[in-house]
Every structure is written in C-alpha cells, then in structure tokens.
Specification:
globular, binds adenosine monophosphate
C-alpha cells in the first residue's frame, strides 16, 4: 500500500462524503469561489486525464465507463502527487476522495495533511437517479445543467463559456445504478471510520443549494 508519508506540504482537509449526485462538486465549487478553500475533485482530475489521453486517463477510463472505482493504488498515488503540489496552510475541500477505507487510511497516514472534518451529504437514491440521469455538463468549463430543472439557455451550449453541453458517459441510467451500488457498499466503512475519529457530520442535502451552502459555511467557520 502506498502512503503519503513523504509528502512535503502541510494542508488542512475537509472531506466531502456522499453519493454521486449529492451535490459535493457543486458545493465545493461554491466554497472555492472564496479564497479560503481549494477544491480538489478526483473525478475532475481523472476526466481531464482522459481528455488529454495520458496513461492515467487510459487506465481510469476502463473503470469509469462501467461506473467502477479506479484501483486504490492508482488513486492514492494520484492524490499524493496532487497534494504535494499545494502551498502549505491551504484548506482543501476533497471531493470524491476517499471512496474506500484504504484510501481514508492512506490519507490519515500522511503526516503533512490533517483531515479536520468529514461531511456526509445525505439524500435518498430516488432523487439521485433523477439528478444524475438528467445531469448535463459543459465539456469545457464543467458547469452543470439539468434537462428538467436547469436547462442551458441555448440547447447544447453552455451559458457561461459557450462550450458544448454533454451527458457524462457515466450518467447513463445503468452506470448510475452501478455507481450507487458501489457507493453504498463502501460508504458504511467510511462513515464508521470518521465517526470513530469524531470527525463525521451529516448534512441533509435534500434542500436548495444555497441552504446547503449556508450550513457548510457555518460548519467550516
Ligand atoms: P465523480 O466525478 O467523483 O463521481 O467520479 C467519477 C468516477 O471517477 C467514479 O465513478 C470512479 O470511477 C472514479 N473515481 C473518482 N474518484 C475516485 C476515487 N477516490 N477512487 C476510485 N475511483 C474514483
């Protein structure tokens, strides 16, 4: 198992836990608009690697297309490299990592980083399926849309950057169901792990995004 022991940065970390579609990325992006937080999404890093056709991207794609998790060794190595490039004393919102107890343990073993909070975004699966299968994203800037609730003003074109609005290949219904299955199989272990360390807080995210944002700001004050 790879560990972070040789990382050379000192960063505070808030981990966002929760099912795909529970709004982790949206909330992390909102928080990172203030200079207080840096948003790191492992899903975004992997999607960029796929776009650029790197060896990491080629490896990750085979798992992501099926809704499966990329192996722990790859993800731990990736996050270690990413964290080591940050400036000391930054407050990182980690969105999408850890997804397994092995990843949480690796993060914990890094003496140069400190997980301060693990925030669990809670919402029922039926709402997640609607959110994910209806979700569309801008290929260029990542801005999320929804086919029912937040359509782009011009069909298929991003309101912000005029990029192409697409459906992520892992947002098709069969893949979404597999991603949720995997989430539930791993989540209990992570919840127990962070509960035991007295770091877990649960947030009901079946409410408007700005209400969730207020709760987060209060928790992270
Ligand atoms: P996300 O955008 O966070 O929903 O991630 C999209 C996909 O990237 C996941 O379904 C996994 O295939 C892969 N992925 C992202 N983060 C991780 C991780 N920490 N461990 C394993 N696979 C990951």
């Amino acid at each position: 198992m790879r560990s972070f022991a040789d990382a050379e940065v000192s960063v505070r970390i808030t981990v966002f836990l929760g099912a795909p579609g529970s709004g982790k990325g949206t909330q992390a992006k909102l928080l990172s608009q203030s200079d207080r937080f840096v948003h790191l999404s492992t899903g975004d890093i992997l999607r960029n690697a796929i776009k650029e056709g790197t060896p990491l991207g080629r490896e990750a794609k085979t798992f992501m297309d099926k809704g499966e998790l990329v192996p722990d060794a790859t993800m731990i190595g990736l996050i270690k490299d990413t964290l080591s490039k940050l400036k000391p004393d930054q407050h990182v919102i980690l969105d999408g990592f850890p997804r397994t107890v092995a990843q949480a343990e690796a993060l914990n073993s890094n003496t140069a980083t400190q997980v301060e909070h693990a925030l669990l975004f809670e919402i029922v699966d039926s709402l997640l399926i609607d959110r994910l299968t209806g979700r569309r994203v801008c290929k260029q800037c990542g801005q999320p849309f929804h086919m029912k609730h937040i359509r782009p003003k011009k069909e298929g074109i991003c309101d912000l950057c005029n990029g192409e609005v697409i459906q992520r290949s892992d947002d098709h219904e069969d893949v979404v169901k597999r991603r949720l299955e995997i989430f539930h199989s791993q989540n209990k272990g992570l919840v127990d792990y962070y509960s035991d360390k007295h770091k877990l807080k649960r947030i009901n995210v079946d409410q408007p995004a700005d209400s969730v944002q207020k709760i987060l700001m209060e928790l992270l004050k």
